[in-house]
Write a structure and sequence with these properties.
The protein is mainly beta. It has a single domain, classed as Porin (Beta Barrel), CATH 2.40.160. The chain contains 1 helix and 13 strands, in the order H-E-E-E-E-E-E-E-E-E-E-E-E-E. It has a 12-stranded antiparallel barrel. A hairpin with a 2-residue loop joins strand 11 and strand 12. It is globular.
Amino acid sequence: MRRLKMIAITGVFTVALLSTQVTAQVFQSSVLQNRRPLHGQPMVANSDSRFALERTGYPFTSPSVESKNPFDNPIETDRHDFTQSAKVVGKGVRQLEYGMFYSTLENGVERETTYAAPEILLRVGLSERTEFRTRFNYAWKYNNEEEDFDGGQDMIFGLKYQLSEPQGRRPESAVELRLSAPTGADSLSTGRWEPGIDYIYTWELAERLSFSGSTGGNANGLGEIGFIEIDTDLEDHFIAWTQSFALGAKVTEKTTGYFEWFGIFTYGRDDESSLSFINAGVDYLINPNVVVDFRIGWGLTEASDDLFAGIGGAFRF
């Protein structure tokens, strides 16, 4: 039986794939914002900043009140961990996130390996608090007891809205509304339009430490291998509930890390599943508009993948 195909691989989309035009835009944006990313120089001109090299999903400082320019703060992404960021990209900003992953599961004599790429997530800022999103991924599955296969997953479209900024004990928070389209391969697509929702929240515990979480639900797992088992009967109708908690910490001026737990629990299936994982990762900021990341994790239950790992990054323009 296929268990969850979550997260991981050892490869990376490189910035070399970016077009000359996009690279020029990124460089121009950095110059115009007076970035000084090298030799330990300040990377954020805002005097209220605490050098917010924010791990994706785990902000280390409050959003800037003085400036509405999203390029005034370093890039922040919704990958590579399970918990997303409680921020949006900002009005007029386009951000492309990408990566690859690998996961493995052994069950007696059966060994199953899954790869996936390019983990594309395109985010477009519609306003200061709202962004449009679209996701695409392709998966390869190899099993020594079953037939191998590969195929594209259903595309997922979404709107993300930042609900609140941190104030006192109130967390920074956002909500994402999702809708999958039946565009994937027969072996991975649900064949239907499936809705989903994710609520994200973050508290800043200290200047270099934050606590984040997310709570969500997805009809039939949206057909994502990150939510359902590949051999799930896609004619079923069930809900995949999700929950995560994470600690994020700034390690150096350019490096941040996190430790996370997340679970995926189905409701309404004949054969219910309960999956639980821990993982850790690190981000490295190349410049204020380009970041790379690495992660590794382990399953905590018999039904969960034994090991997963991945690498990726993002750029904005």
